[in-house]
Write a structure and sequence with these properties.
The protein is built from 11 helices and no strands. By secondary structure, it is mostly helical. The chain has one domain. Helix 2 crosses helix 6, helix 5 packs antiparallel against helix 6 and helix 6 crosses helix 8.
């Protein structure tokens, strides 16, 4: 077996006892990657539907090409990567041949994240109507995001220093919304995330 000069020298050091310590080798364990395991069924259906309409209206005006980049900013990328369904939906949407199917996946992710931001920030009084949903959104965003917790709100609602009243009205809770509306799927057409993943395959 051929050995390099440095390898022979290392073997000689070990044989002579040089460079040998009594200290046990340190094993550095890497922390396990965090995972976000939730189905987001606590998001109020009226809020999810309004967020979805706002997102679709925005991209009908500005195009959908910017949506994947919006979702893949450092602030949101890790959040998406930690959630198995989001990760799969994003991957499928990124490689889908159909633009419509790709956009559906990206809009689903954006709808969920925007809904969480609206709840956590008490925008348009959603959190006062759904206090339990706000607590869940707060806990998720505090645990799994780093800096700004309203990244998509800032993009879709324009500069926070001046929010157009038309956008506030677009996200205003409907009259007579009740907490019983909370336990529904985020996707307004009743497609589950798993079904969307399966369709994209």
């Amino acid at each position: 077996m051929l050995r390099t000069a440095s390898a022979v020298e290392d073997v000689a050091k070990v044989a002579s006892g040089d460079n040998v310590t009594d200290a046990p080798a340190k094993i550095v364990a890497k922390p396990a990657p965090r995972t976000l395991d939730t189905d987001f069924t606590f998001v109020p259906k009226p809020l999810a539907e309004k967020c979805r309409r706002l997102i679709e209206t925005y991209h009908a005006m500005h195009g959908y090409a910017c949506l994947p980049d919006m979702l893949w900013q450092p602030e949101l990328r890790d959040f998406i990567e930690m959630h198995k369904d989001f990760r799969q939906i994003f991957k499928r949407a990124s490689t889908a041949r159909s633009a419509k199917r790709a956009n559906e996946g990206f809009v689903l992710i954006a709808t969920t994240i925007l809904s969480l931001e609206v709840l956590a920030s008490d925008f348009a009084s959603w959190s006062s109507r759904y206090p339990a949903a706000k607590r869940r959104a707060d806990a998720i965003l505090q645990e799994y995001t780093l800096n700004s917790r309203t990244w998509l709100m800032d993009r879709y609602l324009y500069p926070r220093s001046y929010i157009n009243p038309a956008f506030i009205n677009a996200l205003a809770p409907p009259a007579g919304a009740h907490a019983r509306d909370v336990m529904v799927d985020v996707v307004s057409d009743n497609k589950s995330a798993a079904a969307l993943i399966e369709e994209s395959a």
